[in-house]
């Protein structure tokens, strides 16, 4: 064999990486002097780089993905066996793991019934947007094409999903964008709008969505796309009253409710899906990252039977069906890995653990808030947690992004990898984002908090 997993020269690997790999979200000039980090091993919640350094990973693969932790041989073994038996056939035909996983997934999602496979969260959301647009033409004479999205939410890297993303710096330089995507206000209570009803902020924030619908024309709005908890935009949970009112508004104006569970899905918040905390019934749910915990590429666009039935009408047999394809939606590795991933989540009670460890982490972080005045807010649900840093608690003026960068660098130097709002906003790149694997234990949370305590204290002392 030309390639062996555990047989490599680390210097050679680093040189090849530096000379030929184009990294995500990275300035490459520094690599000319230091070389890029190369991760070579993972086990549980820890990873090792090519220099032998060990890190506690508090963001599940840096992008909120490895929910059940590293080194799960039981997933890898099933994927290997599946690929040998049947690795790929286009989803114009069925395959065994896709059929079995679809049933297991739908059992966790009352009210929904159909699973469309693709290979990334961006693609899953693209499929949802195409479903909405085709319904607009099939059912509404081409009028209900507009898709609403929320300030601070993120929905993907493609031009269409960036068109539906409420983060200025993520979008900057990529316009012009796809028409008929319309922004609605955020629901971050800590950053409540000046004119907001502070006593009933959740309902007030939801009512702003209704105002946008009426301003645009209810007969032109086809869907509302929201994260159940804004993740990369600062870990923002909507206040009480928000989701019930959102559901009322969508029903009132015949607007499909699309919930983007790419980050929250498959246990991160302590339930199978984030929306399930709030008693709502979406029409479309998208998911990706935690579906197979990064052991294979997979994403899903899940709909109600009512949405699915709209594509079975026979008025135009040539063009009336959902005319979409995802090449790697036909790869069997994804659903095979996802099946075992769900079994691990169930058998090891990881949803319950996410709830318990999340509560423990929040308690410890609120203790840090009492110690460090630079911490303005601590928030989150389950193992999805945000820490917003400010120059002054009274004014809530955000720290510069360089402060967050310094905190993350300090933690990294002490063997802990954390996340942060990263070149997303004009001024609110000031939130530390934590998403540890759902296997976390108290000692892992203690190590994380101790690293943050040291880093925040050191960086704040130099401001």
Automatic annotation (TrEMBL):
UniProt keyword list: Aminotransferase, Pyridoxal phosphate, Transferase
UniProt similarity note: Belongs to the class-III pyridoxal-phosphate-dependent aminotransferase family.
Alphabetized NCBIfam families for the sequence: PRK07678.1
CDD domains: OAT_like
Necessary cofactors: pyridoxal 5'-phosphate
One Gene Ontology molecular-function label: transaminase activity
Gene3D superfamilies on file: Aspartate Aminotransferase, domain 1, Type I PLP-dependent aspartate aminotransferase-like (Major domain)
Source taxon at top rank: Bacteria
Protein name in the entry: Aminotransferase
């Amino acid at each position: 064999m030309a390639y062996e997993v555990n047989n490599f020269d680390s210097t050679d690997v680093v040189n090849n990486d530096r000379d030929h790999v184009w990294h995500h979200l990275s300035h490459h000039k520094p690599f000319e002097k230091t070389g890029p980090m190369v991760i070579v091993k993972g086990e549980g919640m820890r990873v090792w780089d090519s220099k032998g350094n060990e890190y506690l990973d508090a963001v599940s693969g840096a992008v909120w993905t490895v929910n059940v932790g590293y080194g799960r041989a039981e997933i890898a073994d099933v994927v290997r066996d599946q690929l040998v038996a049947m690795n790929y056939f286009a989803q114009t035909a069925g395959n065994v793991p896709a059929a079995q996983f679809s049933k297991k997934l739908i059992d966790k999602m009352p009210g929904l019934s159909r699973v469309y496979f693709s290979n990334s969260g961006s693609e899953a959301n693209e499929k949802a947007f195409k479903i909405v647009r085709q319904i607009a033409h099939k059912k509404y004479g081409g009028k209900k094409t507009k898709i609403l999205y929320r300030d601070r939410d993120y929905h993907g890297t493609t031009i269409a999903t960036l068109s539906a993303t409420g983060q200025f710096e993520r979008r900057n330089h990529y316009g012009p964008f796809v028409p008929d995507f319309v922004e609605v206000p955020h629901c971050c209570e800590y950053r409540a709008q000046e004119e907001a009803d502070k006593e009933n902020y959740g309902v007030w924030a939801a009512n702003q969505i209704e105002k946008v619908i009426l301003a645009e024309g209810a007969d032109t709005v086809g869907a509302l796309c929201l994260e159940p908890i804004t993740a990369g935009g600062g870990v923002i949970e909507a206040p009480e009253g928000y989701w019930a009112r959102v559901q009322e508004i969508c029903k009132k104006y015949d607007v499909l409710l699309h919930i983007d569970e790419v980050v929250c899905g498959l246990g991160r918040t302590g339930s199978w899906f984030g929306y399930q905390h709030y008693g709502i019934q979406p029409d479309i749910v998208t998911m990706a990252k935690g579906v197979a915990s990064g052991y294979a590429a997979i994403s899903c666009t899940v709909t109600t039977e009512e949405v699915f039935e709209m594509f079975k009408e026979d008025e135009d047999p040539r063009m009336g069906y959902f005319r979409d394809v995802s090449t790697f939606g036909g790869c069997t590795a994804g659903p095979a890995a996802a099946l075992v991933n769900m079994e691990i989540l169930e058998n090891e009670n990881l949803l319950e653990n996410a709830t318990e460890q999340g509560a423990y982490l929040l308690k410890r972080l609120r203790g840090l808030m009492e110690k460090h005045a630079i911490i303005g807010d601590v928030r989150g649900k389950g193992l999805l947690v945000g820490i917003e840093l400010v120059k002054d608690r009274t004014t809530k003026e955000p720290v510069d992004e360089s402060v967050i960068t310094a905190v993350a660098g300090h933690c990294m130097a002490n063997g802990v990898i954390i996340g942060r709002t990263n070149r997303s906003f004009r001024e609110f790149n000031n939130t530390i984002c934590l998403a540890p694997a759902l296997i976390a234990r108290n000692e892992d949370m203690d190590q994380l908090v101790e690293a943050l305590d040291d880093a925040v204290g050191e960086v704040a002392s130099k401001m």
